[in-house]
Amino acid sequence: MRKPVILITGASGEIGHGLIENLAASEGTSIVTIDLQPLPREHRDLVDREYLGSILEIHLLERILAEFEVTTIYHLAALLSTRAEFTPVAGHQVNVEGTLKLLDFAQSQGESHGRPVVFLYPSSIAAYGLPDLETKNTSGPLSEHEWNQPTTMYGCNKLYCEHLGKYYADHYKQLAAETLSGKVDFRSIRFPGLISAFTVPSGGTSDYAPEMIHAAAQGEHYACFVRPDTRIPFMAMPDAVDALLRLAHTDRSRLTRSVYNIAAFNPSAGEIAELVRRGFPKAQIGFEPDLKRQAIVDSWPADVDDSAARRDWGFDPRYDLETAFSDYLIPHISDRY
Ligand code: AKB
Question: Which residue of 11, 40, 176, 269 shows the fewest CB atoms closer than 10 Å?
């Protein structure tokens, strides 16, 4: 008999950090992880098996298939938007080919144990691409289907994989004599920029917000790479982890779509700097826009419409902008440094 487990890819990254702690806290949950980087020491005891390696290594997935019965997959592994612009082919390999391998793995798992594998896929506001600032500033909160014209490799990868997931869930091998779809229960969240008190991201283009606050807490000068008026949606990490768990646990019959926007607050970079200065009065923050990274953030929406997530699965973030700083970020980050 194979042991039922939850599989997390990219488990050593930012979302994995909070997700492992939450999942491990619920009794009877067994966790298997894959990442190129080892898990932090405090997480090693929380998981049943840690595989060190790439999601592109097919023999790793075969070993997991042979040994475990995977019920749910949180596919967090990805090369983020800035990094993928420097190495687009590697970005495509990890973000698209890696996701394809995981979807195929989920299909095999579902076929072998007979139940659909719940597949959680973090997509991103990078799936959008607005043509210019005027359109961005006048189009209001975007729904999931609007302006799906990403300008980055990462955004293209995310948008395509949203479709790939739907294909596996609904149309997989649709010309075969027997019905093979329905073995992957694909559910995706388009995340805004995420800000964690415990980890600092690397390789993203929304990184200016977390970098600004972590630099201030360490007494370091920070040169923000976007203009003060730059506005995109953000969210505190605990709300992102709660959202993944809540979507994973919602009865499929309540879901009217497979891709959901979520958002919590959408401050400008200047407003973030003010809040950071309020928490850390000695913060030294300057603005030195990098025009190329600026163009990427300018193509992302100023706000998104998350009414479908609120209606279908009760998305309701705990933190707004004020409380994210006062109750979560400032106290925890101050403790950390
Ligand atoms: C990035 O900046 O690439 C990510 C994202 C917005 O998905 N944080």
Answer: 176
